[in-house]
Amino acid sequence: MKTYRSLGELPLGGGRRSVAIGSFDGVHLGHRAIIATAVEQGTALGIPSTAITFEPHPIAVLRPHLRPTVLTPLERKAELIAEIGVDELLVLPFTRAFARVRADRFIDMIGSPPLGAEVIVVGENFRFGHGGAGTAEAMRAYGRSNGIVVEIPPMVSSADGKPISSTRIRRIVGDGRVEEAAELLGRPHRIVGPVVPGDQRGRELGLPTANIDPPADTAIPGRGVYAARALLDDTVFPAAVNVGLAPTFREKGERPPLRVEAFLVGYEGPDLYERIVTLDVLARLRDEQRFDGPDELVAQIKDDIAQTVAIAAE
User: Fold this and answer.
1) In this structure, are residues 226 and 281 in contact, taking their beta carbons and an 8 Å threshold?
2) Distance between CA atoms of 28 and 185, rounded to whole angstroms?
3) Angle at the Cα of 124 (from 118 to 125), degrees rounded to 5?
4) Of 5, 151, 212, 216, most Cβ neighbours within 10 A?
5) Would the pLDDT of 47 be above 90?
6) Which phi-psi region, left, alpha or beta, contains residue 130 (left: φ > 0; alpha: ψ -120 to 50)?
7) Distance of alpha carbon 64 from alpha carbon 226, whole angstroms
8) pLDDT digits over 187-243, tens only?
């Protein structure tokens, strides 16, 4: 898959394309259906398929106070989109100037060189143009007038009949319902970050943990203990993960920053400081809780580890 970071990077000549458009944060099952439709249309017509996304998320620019947490940073988003079989990824920088482009001008941009879309695929709730004035149906009307096929796949719903959306998944992840999030994403929710120094309490207890520092805008599961798979370089380890405040060692009422601490089962190498650890969060084991002392805590952690190994093995 070729990746372009602006319209100016596209090859000259304005070739025909089958284009899917969306923010695609999460690349969840609904997004995958949209992108797959563009791929199928492109294959049928013998033309390249292109996914168009925006960076940063439009809401982060239009309403910074409502900036959403990120389910998939751009690098991960590109990997997931490539897996669907797209030929090209076009990442359009979303700025305030771009947000002022009228809806009709936006459609003209997609249908004209250098993009030259012959097929456009968008979701039912896709909005575009200044003030979100453009709708999916408006794009379909434009297509009819300009010889462009506009496909609007039906919204994908979960088993309970509710539409799948990035907003819904962010809320579910924030609630700690990671198994439910995985069903909507089609894979476990992922957290990536470097290992930074912590309080060394895990080492003192004989259970050293990696204190992972993901980007500030990452969607983090709610406070609790989770079973995960940890990827370190090319090796996978079961990982018992605590997201929280380590209350056993805090004064009541003390509110330190939220931490993501992972015990990598079977890792026996040197300190992991500054190395990148990837966590695929598989299941929630329990709430974070305050114990009466270290011995009680260690006993519970060992039980968490046993559960984690069993879940990761599945």
Assistant:
1) yes
2) 4
3) 115
4) 212
5) yes
6) beta
7) 31
8) 999 999 999 987 766 666 668 899 999 999 999 999 999 999 999 999 999 999 999
Averaged pLDDT of the chain: 92
Contact 72, 25 (CB under 8 A): yes
Strands 17-21 and 117-121: parallel
pLDDT score of 14? 62
Residue 247, judged by CB atoms within 10 A of its CB (0-12, 13-18, 19+), counts as middle
Q: Are 249 and 264 in contact (CB under 8 A)?
A: no
Q: Is the pLDDT of residue 295 over 60?
A: yes
How many alpha carbons lie under 13 Å from residue 221 in its C-beta half-sphere?
Answer: 33
Looking at residue 169, its amino acid is I
Which pLDDT belongs to residue 308? 98
What Rg do the C-alpha atoms of the chain give, in angstroms? Answer: 22
Residues facing 212 on adjacent strands: 195, 260
Is pTM, for the whole model, over 0.85? yes
**Sign of the alpha-carbon torsion through 250, 255, 257, 263:** positive
Long-range contacts made by residues 232-235, C-beta under 8 angstroms, separation at least 24? 232/264, 232/267, 232/272, 232/275, 232/277, 232/278, 233/275
Cβ contacts of 14 within 8 Å, gap of 6 or more: 112, 113, 114, 115, 116
For residue 314, what pLDDT is reported?
85
What is the spatial distance between Cα 99 and Cα 108, in angstroms, rounded to a whole number? Answer: 15
pLDDT at residue number 289: 82
Beta bridge partners of 239: 228, 264
For residues 58 and 126, what is the distance between their CA atoms, to the nearest angstrom? Answer: 12
- pLDDT at position 203 is 65
